[in-house]
Amino acid sequence: MREIVHIQAGQCGNQIGAKFWEVISDEHGIDPTGTYHGDSDLQLDRISVYYNEPFDHVPRHDLEPGTMDSVRSGPFGQIFRPDNFVFGE
To answer: Which GO molecular function annotation, any one, does this entry have (predicted)?
Structure first.
């Protein structure tokens, strides 16, 4: 089994990363709440590469504090678990 490690660092990285998750979610039929609403088996074929599924499909990544609020309030902000937001001073 292969996995991809996706790390977002800094303001630019987090802004690009937030857009990345929007695109990946759309490609896999995942709505902004993390629920699958797709219509193709191909969308679910490799979904575990980017998402784990405790209850809904949730991306995993780190964020820096300056852009956390903008990511959380963005269109896909609900799909991030609060304990996956990691930052330091």
So the answer is: GTP binding
Q: In which element (H, E) is residue 17 found?
A: helix 10-27
State how far the Cα of 69 lies from the Cα of 87, in Å rounded to an integer: 13
- In a domain, residue 2? The reply is no
> Residue 4 falls within a domain, yes or no?
no
As given in the structure block, the two tokens for residue 59 are: 């991306």
Residue 56 lies in a domain: yes
Range of the domain at 33: 10-84
Mean pLDDT score of the chain: 76
The tally of domains found in the chain comes to: 1
Question: Could you report the per-residue pLDDT of 29-63, keeping only the tens digit for each?
Answer: 988 888 888 888 888 887 777 777 654 555 555 45
CA separation for the pair 71, 55 (Å, rounded): 21
d(CA 52, CA 59): 7
